[in-house]
Amino acid sequence: MNADTTLSIGSLRLNSPLVQAALSGYSDRAMRVLARRHGAAYVLGEVLLDKFVIEAARSPRNSARLSVADEEHPVGGQLMGANPDDFAPAAVKLVEAGFDCVDINFGCPVKKVLGRCRGGYLLGQPSTALEIVARVRDAIGPAIPVTLKMRRGLDDSPESADRFWEIFDGAFERGVAAITVHGRTVQQKYVGPSSWEFLARVKKHAGSRIVIGSGDLFSAQACIQMMQTTGVDGVSIARGAIGNPWIFEQSKRLLAGLPPGDPPGVSEQRAVLEEHFRLAQQLHGEERTSRVMRKFAIKYARVHPDYMTVRNEFIAVKSMADWIAVLERHYASDAPGREPLDDVDETVECDESHAA
């Protein structure tokens, strides 16, 4: 690929255009560290409610959600809420916790989130959305970038399109450094293809302003194809990165004009699984880690040659002993890995049960 393989988001100078998206219930410190080690240039923490961030210090368990490791910088924190008054103090808290950028979520399509006037709901409320942007931008000072996550609108109506462009242009006028655009509408949720044609129109409209593309990035090839066909400045890899940190290494190789390489073998998969468990244990403690890691392990199973068997055994894991037993049964000897199937489940990038 002949395009520029660096990316700037305000003061952040990134060595590649590969971003790990904010993933509610997933992109905690452990996942982010592994993504950075495997080639992600920039990572985002899971979406957090503004009020949760303001009050998180009152609970050790909640404050862990704001924990940042030295090796994961640059790292962004993502906020979601409804009231402009709550965004500014929450943004300040994120910066105090060590996040290098504040990202605002105007894209979540989850029904409960929309019902509480958060996330994608704000794509229908340009004046409120832009007030939120201005409040955050003013609160944290010019050195810390502010970014947005948007979908292409609430639906495909002309009115929705008009509101999208009003927010898109207005946010840049108010000082955001970059906007990530997902090629589905809020109404679509995660059903149907993401419109890369729309992303191309957005980037053409944006000119030199930074646009990061999102949607249907389940392979390294798809990441490069999106940049080539739409012209976006970077890609935000979401569900495709869960249990597959290798997608960043493979994408970097393609950016350098090299083949992506073979899928990780079983021994490498085990080493990464064990390291992910160790990092999660440092963050969550042993008791919670077995439960937290189960949802990751189910995703890691996609690259194992005996995918369905391993997946089903990880689903049944309830303790540390169960976890070790699955590794001993299915990861004891090396074998070639497999390419993961496109993720077709209902994993979402924002879920208020995790955000609150």
Tags for this model:
356 residues; alpha/beta; TIM Barrel; eight-stranded parallel beta barrel; globular
What does this structure look like?
- By secondary structure, the chain is of the alpha/beta class.
- The chain has two domains: 263 residues, Aldolase class I (TIM Barrel), CATH 3.20.20; 65 residues.
- The chain contains 15 helices and eleven strands.
- The strands form two sheets. An eight-stranded parallel beta barrel has the order 3-4-6-7-8-9-10-11, surrounded by seven helices.
- Strand 6, helix 4 and strand 7 form a beta-alpha-beta unit.
- Helix 4 runs parallel beside helix 6, helix 6 runs parallel beside helix 7 and helix 12 runs antiparallel to helix 13.
- The longest helix is centred in the last third of the chain and has 19 residues.
- The chain is globular.
Write the layout of secondary structure elements.
Elements: E1 7-9, E2 12-14, E3 18-20, H1 29-37, E4 42-44, E5 48-49, H2 50-55, H3 60-63, E6 75-80, H4 84-97, E7 101-106, H5 111-115, H6 126-140, E8 146-151, H7 158-173, E9 178-182, H8 196-206, E10 210-214, H9 220-230, E11 234-237, H10 246-255, H11 266-284, H12 286-300, H13 307-315, H14 320-330, H15 352-355
Parallel strand pairs: 3-4, 3-11, 4-6, 5-6, 6-7, 7-8, 8-9, 9-10, 10-11
Antiparallel strand pairs: 1-2
Helix pairs in contact: 1-11, 4-6, 6-7, 9-10, 11-12, 12-13
What's the quick description here?
This protein has 356 residues and is of the alpha/beta class.
Low-confidence stretches: 343-348
CATH class of the largest domain: Alpha Beta
Q: Can you list the strand order of the major beta sheet? A: 3-4-6-7-8-9-10-11
> What's the name of the CATH homologous superfamily of the largest domain?
Aldolase class I
- What's the domain count? 2
Q: What is the straight-line distance between the termini?
A: 41 Å
Rg calc: 19 Å
Helix and strand content put the structural class at alpha/beta
Helix content: 40-55%
Which outline best applies?
globular
* Secondary structure tally: strands: 11
Topology order in helix (H) and strand (E) letters: EEEHEEHHEHEHHEHEHEHEHHHHHH
Strand composition percent: 5-15%
Look at the structure and give the mean pLDDT: 92
